[in-house]
Design goal:
By secondary structure, the chain is α+β, with helices and mostly antiparallel strands. The chain has five helices and eight strands. A hairpin with a 7-residue loop joins strand 3 (35-40) and strand 4 (48-51).
Length: 136
């Protein structure tokens, strides 16, 4: 997979973190429609859908390659969990779904085994949404 090309062709990105009690957050970036959707399973009244500004979209697209997200998603898919992730005490799970311009998708996720570069993606999500993306 040509990751440089793949990052440029992302049209939809969905990232979710959940506790075993189904509490957590989900964010969906629809880059084609320039919309961001946020779901807060701790407090439903914090949910929102709003326009994704050019500035935030640029920040997301420029920052994603630095997270190594597609690389570690592929690593998890290939079973290289120990190489790309660390076992954590966090009682939760993460899921990511990526849709590319050609409508192909890539999915990945794990329970209690977060990617080593998770904090880079978390920070990017927090900067582009203005919300905390951390399990309580």
């Amino acid at each position: 997979m040509n990751y440089e090309k793949a990052y440029r062709s992302i049209s939809v990105l969905e990232v979710e973190i959940m506790t075993f009690a189904n509490e957590g957050y989900a964010v969906k970036y629809d880059l084609g429609r320039k919309v961001i959707s946020w779901r807060d399973n701790y407090m439903w009244n914090n949910n929102f859908t709003r326009a994704l500004s050019e500035e935030k979209q640029k920040m997301l697209l420029e920052g994603l390659p630095e997270t190594g997200m597609l690389e570690w998603m592929k690593g998890y898919e290939m079973g290289l969990v120990d190489e790309y992730g660390d076992k954590t005490m966090i009682p939760g799970e993460w899921k990511i779904r990526v849709e590319f311009d050609d409508k192909t998708t890539m999915k990945s996720g794990a329970e209690q085994h977060f990617p080593k570069k998770w904090k880079n993606l978390k920070r990017l999500i927090e900067h582009t949404t203005g919300c905390s993306f951390e399990l309580r």
